[in-house]
Amino acid sequence: MTRTAILDAAIHCFIELGYANTTTALIANQAGVSRGAMMHHFPSRMSVMKAVIMYLHELRLKEYQELMADIDTPEAQLTHKDIRNSVEMAWNYVNMPSFIAYQELLAASRTDPELKAVMEPVEKDFEKQFLQMVKSVFPHWQRLPALEPAHDLVQFLMKGMALSHMSSRRNARAQKVIDYLALILMEIYDESSLADEATTSKAK
């Protein structure tokens, strides 16, 4: 419990103070633990960072799976409403504390070689696992060649909007983008499905 409290406190500090300003003393204070307890679990600042990165890695996958659960039902036809709901959930996902904290770490890793060395393999593994999870939560898409580019389209767009945190009327503008993106994804899905059906028919 103490270890989890420290990791959650570190995430809070990243969001409120930024990576550069987050010290082990501040994390311990936020977690409500003594410096001795902090040092027992994490003897150095980088040991905390490594643990937080792995904690966020697992947490972000779990949160995505929970957000997307039951949106795409294999037995039912995929509708525009389903797709828009998935895009809305993707927007919610990039506004969660776990995502914001991880982006803070990613930004810091650009100029911090030690942090980059830790994050780079984790990020590559996350992308691989994330795509596999997308296939599992969206069964209608999993066989389609358009799945990966459609996934990239959603993720790049959502990340860009999430990072535009100082934009005026941010939420209202985001909803309009979500509407347009859902229409585009519906078209991509329909075209890719027809192409897949034609390929399957020829193979038979």
Automatic annotation (TrEMBL):
The UniProt entry, under InterPro entries, shows: Homeodomain-like_sf, HTH-type_TetR-like_transc_reg, HTH_TetR
| One Pfam family of this chain | TetR_N
Superkingdom, according to UniProt? Answer: Bacteria
Which PANTHER family does the annotation name? HTH-TYPE TRANSCRIPTIONAL REGULATOR BETI, HTH-TYPE TRANSCRIPTIONAL REGULATOR RUTR
Species of provenance: Pseudomaricurvus hydrocarbonicus
Q: Lineage of this protein's species? A: Bacteria, Pseudomonadati, Pseudomonadota, Gammaproteobacteria, Cellvibrionales
The residue ranges of the HTH tetR-type domain are 1-60
Q: What is this protein called?
A: TetR/AcrR family transcriptional regulator
Query: Which key words are in the record?
Result: DNA-binding, Transcription, Transcription regulation
- In this entry, the residue ranges of the DNA-binding region are 23-42
Sample GO molecular function, one term: transcription cis-regulatory region binding
